Amino acid sequence: MSWRGPFWRWHHLVSLLLLMSVLTTVTGCWDQVPFPERAPALVITLAPATPAGMFQWTFYFPNPTVTVSSLSQISTSQQTYAVRVDSPTFAAAYSSAQQRLARDLFLGQLEVIILSTKIPASEVATLTNAYNTNGQVPKTAYMVAAQGQLGRLVVVSPQETIPVLYLTRLFDCHRCQPSDLSQFQWQVWDAFESPGISPVMPDVGGPDRVAEIAVYPLKGPPTIWTTKATTGWAYLLSRVHKETVSVREKSGMVAVTRLHDTTQLAVSLVDGRLQVTGAVHAYGGLAQWPPLTTLTANFLHHVEEQVSAHIAADIGQAIVTANQTHEDPFGYGRQWLLAHPTNLALDTPEYWTHVPITIHLTVTTTITVSGVET
Amino acid sequence: MKGLVEPISANQYMMVLFVSLIVGDVYIWPQFLTEHAGPDSLLVIAAATVLAAALMGVQAWWTMHARQPSLFAAFSDTWGHTAAVGLTSITLLLGLGLDSVLLALYSDMLQVFYYPETPRWATMALMVATAGWLAARTVSGVARNTQIWLPPALITFIAVVLASYVNVSQVSAVIPRGSIPPWDFMQATGATWFLFATAGLPASLLPHVRGVTTRRAVGMTIAVVATQGIILAMLLSLTVGTLGIVPTAKIEWPIVYVFSLVVLPTFFLRGVGLFIILSWTTVAVLFGATHFQNVLLNLGALSRPRRTLWATLLGGLLLIGAHEIGSVEAARELLFHVVTPLNFIWMLLVMPLTAAVSLLRRKPKVGKVAAPPPD
């Protein structure tokens, strides 16, 4: 372009104005609400209410009066404030809660959704779906199930400062816990939508006790699995990161830590039974053994066998529980369905709840000695 | 076309062509595809890529063979002036129809995920205005802008895609089982065509590429289509591997949804998927600019004010089209059942036939040495 004539021409001015207006409008300031004018919910708890079909929704917000310096002086009950509404749907709960709030109710910072175990699976499926269809709410909020008073779980532990909740920090660290039981909202939604898998959520027994899972059958309330069955489930899905097993040897107690595992499993459908075959291989480190024992290959081999038997027992417990409750939190039905897409007749959730699972596994363990002693 | 048009480099050609294809990648195609092709979606993507590479390769070959400055001129060379007017208008109009559907869908996506309170026409108008402003520049102007903006956008995109692979847990959902009936297979392949539709952009652009041989032109065009195919395969395996087949078919924007699931707790931003929207809107604007310019190049040598006028007119048409479509359901219906199949059938009929006729009617030009035979 040549620069003949005056430096500023009218079309330069027009393009400049156009550019300025584009730059200012493209930021989407229509949707911006300053953060002090927002009420960011951190937790939603959901419990059944009367009459049937109603739910009690409680939205928990960080208390804006709490500053970092005053955190150590206030009780846990003051760190959050709650808004409680009764409503049959997610959308209506949002509006009712908004009516109680002076600020804009904002769910973009939601971290945890706590569901009462009294809510049956079909209702949970509907509510999860309603939550999932909203494009603005985070699908990466954690979902947990709990019994009793749900509000007692919304604590900011002394280890954290608001707005970080104990449960969020716990689940965010995927490899810190012996087994990772965390479930994002999208994973729960995904399980509800897929045939051949039962949705799972960690069951929170107390403010700082998460060691069991709640598994949702096709109908009715969830079943809480025992810690042993939960560990077995975690082994089968390779969710174990640093489990510890203690076994008794002739000379005394032996402990194996940092156990994690890999699985190679094949699923087939034989005579209306899901048959799972394959191998689970665990790796761990020897952490404790009787003082007068010399570590020999033979000794280690014996410990490995005992640990394998322990893991196999956990897995067996998980399979037994699954068959008793007609649940499949492992997703073996789904795995089989994906491999056999033409069997559309089996593509119904109802079919998979009555298919028993049999499992033929080889469990092996490799134990290493990595401490300063031998 | 001389004077106004400064030639572009071979790399710039590839980038512009790529940007004219890529914007559809974040769209709703995995939903439609998994709904219709189930576990065999990867096969459909492979077939569509091969078909697109063949058709676009033929187009590139024909452009180099005809040695004309635009799609319209090349059509005139092969079919005569009157037929060329019809052929070019239909090609460009079909392309514009597709663009307005894509624009409507993109603004809907922005509203669903990011700007709930912003009216859809506002985002659309802004994007079209920026695209038109760019398109009124020279070919090299658009090419240089693409050269600046595409690499950072693509790098962000690939980074988020790779970060999203953490969530893949259903690998068996991605493996093709070969169980899809042939008719469904063909339908699904046709419905993915909007990911490869350029409305004759290679024919309009190749004459402006510096020192390019026929072999190079065909090679570059096919390479761009293949890259698009690879990215589509990556996105499909990511989406279906994360969500599984049945849930993928239930989500309207599966890819954007999957991007929103990336969590990096150690990072100061929880949702890194947000970066996608920054980079992708840039790509969408460039996409619009290349498509506008495709039309402008076929209108002959125009002065700058006239190009601005035409770009404004085209942008207005596009906006009216996108606005008239209304709901996202209507847009989806149009995309998969009307606009894409029409574009697909049109290209499938016209391109091979044109290339064949051009090959048969080839005669040495008066006053020139006969052109060397095509490679």
Q: Report the portion of residues of chain B in β strands.
A: under 5%
What structural class is derived from the secondary structure elements of chain B?
mainly alpha
The number of distinct β-strands of chain B equals 0
Query: Order of helices and strands of chain A, N to C?
Result: HEEEHEHEEHEHHEEEHEEEHHHE
Rg of chain A, Cα atoms, Å: 27 Å
Compute the average pLDDT of chain B.
87
State the largest interface: A-B, 31 and 37 residues
Oligomer: heterodimer
What does the radius of gyration of chain B come to? 21 Å
Notes on the structure:
The complex is a heterodimer of chains A (374) and B (375). Chain A is of the alpha/beta class and 374 residues long. Helices cover 30% and strands 29% of the residues of chain A. In chain A, α4 (121-133) packs across α6 and α7 packs across α8 (297-325). Chain A is globular. Chain A starts with 9 loop residues before the first helix and ends in a 6-residue tail after the last strand. Chain B is 71% helix and 0% strand. The model of chain B is unreliable at 366-370 (pLDDT under 50). Chain B is globular. In chain B, α3 (41-66) packs across α8. Chain A binds chain B through residues 11, 15, 18-19, 22, 25-26, 28, 30-31, 135-136, 138-140, 172-173, 184, 186, 189-190, 193-195, 334-335, 338-342, and chain B through 38-39, 112-119, 122-123, 126, 129-130, 133, 170, 172-173, 175, 177, 179, 243-247, 250, 253, 257, 260-261, 263, 265, 270-271, 305.
